[in-house]
Amino acid sequence: MTQPIRRERARLPAAERRRQIIDVTTRLIAERGFWGLSMQDVADGCGLTVPGLLHHVGSKDGLLLAVLEHRDAEDLRSLNEAVGDTESPREICAALVRRNSWQPEIVRLFAVLEAESLTPDHPAHDYFAARQQNTIDGLSRLLKGRTPTRTGWP
Question: Can you tell me the distance from the alpha carbon of 91 to that of 15, in angstroms, rounded to the nearest whole number?
Answer without folding.
Answer: 33
